[in-house]
Every structure is written in C-alpha cells, then in structure tokens.
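Let us walk through a complete example step by step. Step one is to write down the protein sequence. Step two is to encode the small molecule, zinc ion, as a SMILES string so that its atoms and bonds are unambiguous. Step three, shown after the inputs, is the structure prediction itself.
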Amino acid sequence: MSTLVDYPTFSESPFFFDRRNLHIPQEEAKHIQDHSKPTVSYYFPKDVGNYHYGERHPMRPHRLMLTNNLVLGYGLHNNMDMYNPRKATEDELREFHDADYVEFLKRVTPKNAQQLTKDYTMYNIGDDCPIFHDLFNFCKQYAGGSLAAGRKLSQGGTDIAINWSGGLHHAKKGEASGFCYVNDIVLAILELLRYHPRVLYIDIDIHHGDGVQEAFYLSNRVLTVSFHKYAVDFFPGTGNLSEIGSNLGKHFAINVPLLDGIDDESYISLFKSVMEPTITTYRPSAIVLQCGADSLGCDRLGTFNLSIAAHGECVRFIKTFGLPLLVLGGGGYRQSSVSRCWAYETGVCNGVELPKELPPNNYYEFFGPDYSLHPPLSGHIQNLNTRQSLERIRVSIREKLRYLNGAPSVQMQEIPPDLQGFLESEERKQEEVDEEMNNGTAGEDRSDGPQKRNEYFDLEVGGDGHGASGVEQQTSRGKRTIRF
Ligand SMILES: [Zn+2]
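Step three: the predicted structure of the complex.
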C-alpha cells in the first residue's frame, strides 16, 4: 500500500510555455576537435519523444527529439554506436516493481481511467503523474534503453553508454512519483550488479534522487550520492544530510542539500571535492550518472544558476576516472536548455569540443534569439548558499566518507559468491548472451552512421508505439530474488 504524504508536488510550480521565435538558420560551423576516443554507445528509443503528458504538464518528452536533433546536427553519430533499443519486458520491469503496479500500468488508459480511480490513490496517479495515451509503452521504451545500456556496459562492450530518455529517479517500487512511473535507473543498476560488486550512483538533478536512494537504502553494494535543492516546500521533501542509509547500507547514501541559486564555481568545487574522495574510497567498478537538467539556470521548475558548461563539467570530471559509465537524463523543463545541455554532454562523453553555434536542425526556432550552444542562464536567482554553509556540508560529508573504509562491500571479491550462484542459475536468452559477448544486438536495431539518420528524425511514426522490435518479448529468466 502506498501512503499519502503532504510533500509538495511539482504541480504547485507555475507552468510556462516556450516562446518560439522564428529565425533564419545560420551557417553551420563544422569544427569538431578530437581529444580522446572512448567507446560511446548512444541509446535512443525510436518513438520516445512522441509522447505527451498533457497540455499543461511541464514534462515534455519532445525535449528528447530536440536533443537528438542537436546530437545528429553536430555529427556526433559519427563518433558513437547508435542503438534503437528494444522495449523492456514486463518481467524486466518486475525485477524492481511490484507485479500489481506493473499490471496497473499495463491496463490503465485515459478511456478506462474512470473505473480505476480507486487505484489512482494507491499508485499515486494524479496531476504530477497523469495517465496519458500509450503510457505503458513510454515506460517500456525508456526503461528498455537504460537496460540495454546497462547490459552493454556490464560486458565491456562500451566505455560509456548514454540514454537521455532515462533517469526517472523518483519512481518507487509500487507507485509513480514526480513525473516518473518506472524507475529505469534502479533496473539498470540491478543489471550492473549482476557483474559489478559496487556501483556508484550520482544524481545532479535539482531534485533529490529519492527513488534510487530508497531502492538501495539497505545495501552497501550501491552508494548513492545526490546533489539537490533541499527545502521544506520543494519536491520531494527528502535528501537531508542526515539520510545516510541503514543496516548494511548505513553510510552508503550521501546527500548534498543545497539552497536556491547555487552558482557554477560553488557547485563544481563542491561536486569535485565530494566525488573525488567518494570514488577513491568506495572504489566502484561502474558509475551511473543521472544528469537531470533542471539544475540549470532558467529552468521552469528549478531554482539553481548553473550554466551548461558547469553541468557538463560534472560529466567531464566523472569521465576522467575511466570507469564504465552509464549516463542518463532526468528532469529538465526548458526544452531549449535541456537539449543543448545533453547535446553538449554527449560531446563531453565523446571527448569532442562542439562549436558554439548550433547546427541547423529541425527545431531551430526553439533556440533563438542567440542560436548558441551556451546561452546565458546564470545569475537570475539570488544565491542563498554561503561559503560557510557549503563548507559545513563539505566537512560533514568528508567525515561520513571515513565510515566507508573497511566496509564489507569494499573488501568484496570481483563477483560476490551469492551473485555468482545467482548468475549460474539463470537462463539467458541467446541474443543477450550474444550481446554480452559483443557479437549481437539483443533485439536492438543498430544504426551506424548517417544512413539511418532519418529514423531519428521521423515524426510521422505510426501509433502502435511498439518500436522496431514489435512484439512483446518474454524472457526465460523467470522469477528471481536479488539480494542486497
Ligand atoms: Zn528534477
């Protein structure tokens, strides 16, 4: 059963709409400079940008179309392996989510919603998390992207995997929350845990990564670190310094609660001084980075002052540790900023420097009046974080990190015995085995180079929402228990 709480909701925030100024596209700048060459895999579920939460809802999946257009416009598809992942199966969703909740998501439609209003309370459906057309396929698509990315990383098939449609960090085991229905991050981390003894989760969305923290709150195999705004009237109302995990997971949750208006310099300084000792102490073998873009300045729901360059600097810094890295999206409610940010960070992942001028693309009118990759976003909100308050947070977290030394998980072997047994007991689909051996695509369409480019631009895709893989795929995994 879910419980009703009085936490503030997203819907209390004012909604705004994009001002679309038509401008003539400028000359494309074509200089992309190579710095280093990690293998990067880019997952874009083909239809995921075509869903609509509702006319006045601030979450716009359409931002993914803008992002993809900029990524392709900059020619980044020439640097990466591009995938149209298959949808997650119901079995895969049930690896974390309750069976009754998955069944509800499967059954509910805007048409039959009247008969299911009793379930609305139970599953936290409402203004923040409305029922919209083809909701379940939307969930399966973005979750399928994160799962495919996780599988690829687990077997060393790529250094970095990106799924901007993922990162829905608020969803709970048995209920929707904060625009999130299925928690693709938890599902991807569970996939990584099949092979990785310790996974580090980092969250730079302006909202607390509560769903992921809660899922692994009792575990020392996942360390969650969330940087977010913390205030009594700000969603989701959790994420204080005192939330540190419990039982085996005690000290394996870190929260960095911030106030309005934090600027580039303070944020980057704090981020690096927390993450560097966290990574060297915890020694994760894989990292998941949620890049919610509502921490940028000028966001419609967020109240930070970060520039795209500063947000991207966090990605760059984490990349320097050279660990298998899953990069996910998240919040972000000004489409023009979100898409710029994630295109820029796709460049960061690939080690290329993108020209400041945006390339011509199908949505050019969104990016006026400057048509620049780095519009001024900072300085609109008063910075309430003082040097002293940030220093107190820094010292407090450094203190907490001392408890990680000697923690059981840090002394684990490469693959813990219980997980090894679990793997042996499991049947894998042949196509997934092939994929893990790096010689298959596990039901995914792979597109190399610009010849497949049109499929990402296609806005005329038909209404069945099934993606390229078409039919529902049943796994042969059966029910299983993950211990953590
Ligand atoms: Zn957010």
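Step four is interpretation. The chain has 14 helices and eleven strands.
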